[in-house]
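From the shared-data thread, chain only:
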Amino acid sequence: MPLFDTALQEKAIIFEIGHAYTKLGFAGENSPRFIIPTKVENSANGTSKDLFDYKDNNEFYEQVITFIQKLFFKYILVNPKDKKIVMVESILCPTIIRETFASVLYLHFEVNTIFFVPLHLAALSTLAIDTALVIDIGYKEAIVIPVFSGVQVLNAWQAQALGAEAIHDEIKGQLILNGIKEEYLTPKVIEDIKARLCFVTNLERSRKYREKNPPPPCPDIDYPIKGDEIIKIPGVLRETAFEVLFPEDNDRLGLPYIILDAILKCPIDMRRQLAENIFIIGGSSIIMGLTDRIKHELLELVQSDVYRDRLPIKAFKFHTGISQPNFTGWLGGSIYGNTDLLNQNGLSKETYLKTKKLPDWSNFNGEETRSA
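Structure, as C-alpha cells:
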C-alpha cells in the first residue's frame, strides 16, 4: 500500500477489535487489510500484553490510545483526524469498553463520526438476508443471537464460555499429560496445532470416547518445534480437542443446547425460519467437521425428551459465507461503511461533545426513550 493514497482519504475505516485479533481496513473492500493480535507493546521492556488486560479504567484508557495509534500510523497509514469510523462490536460488549474507545477516538484522535454496528447483524449483510440464527464462536465465548427481519431478538440471546480459549486450554492440557514440556506450548504453537491438525469428530466416534470405549484413533502427527525439536500430537487429541464445545452434563450448556434454547425463546412463528437459516461465524468455526457435527447433534436433541414436545422441528439448514468465517463480521462492517447508513446513523463528534452519550443498539440517536 502506498504511503499516501488519496483515494483512501474519503473512505470510512472499519475496525473489528476482538479479544484475540483485530481486523482493520477500509469500507468497500472485500477483506481486511490487516489481521493483528489485540495486544499493546511496552516499549520500555519489549514485552506485550492483551489490550483488555488492565487494572483500572485509567490504565485501559492509556492502552487504548497506544493501540489505536498503532492501527492508524503503523498499519493503515492515514491521519485519523476527521475520518469516519465503523466499529463492529458485540452487543454484549461492556459499556466501559465502548465508551473508552469512543472517548479516545473523538477526543484524542479527533475522528469525525463513529458508527457502532452489531456484529451479528453485520454478518448477515454479507449474505443479503435479514433473518438467521447467528452463532459467533469467538475467543472467549460462543454467542447465539437470533435476527429476524433485521432486528436482533435480544431476549433470546444465549452465551457460554465455549470459545477458542477453552479449546486451547484443552489442547495444552492433553499435551502436558502426554509429557510435552509446557515451555514449548506457547499460545502461537497451540493455535497452530488447533488450526492445522485438529478436527471435529463425528457423533458416533464421540460417543465411544465418552463411554470409555474409544474407537481406533486417527494417526499421530509429528510436529516440528524450535527447529530441531519434534513433538508428537496424538490422534486422540486431534479429534477430541473440540469436544469441550459439546459437554454432556445435566446443566445442558453445550453449543447445541444453547442453539436450541435460543430458538425456543423466540416466538413460535419465527422458530422454523431460524432453524432453516443458521449462520456460524468466528475463527474457530473454520475447523473441519464443526457444522456437520452441530447439525447431527441438533437433529438428535430435538428427538429427546427435553425438546421433543416443545420444538417440533425436523430440519436444520446452514448458510455458507462468502468470506472466511474469522472476518465475516468485519466484511459486514465494510458493507455498512459503504452505504448511507454511516451518515444517517453514525454519531458525529459534535453530537458526542454535546451529549457525552453513545447510541444504544435500539436508539441510534442516543435520545431518551419515553415510557408508555
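The first helix runs from residue 57 to 76.
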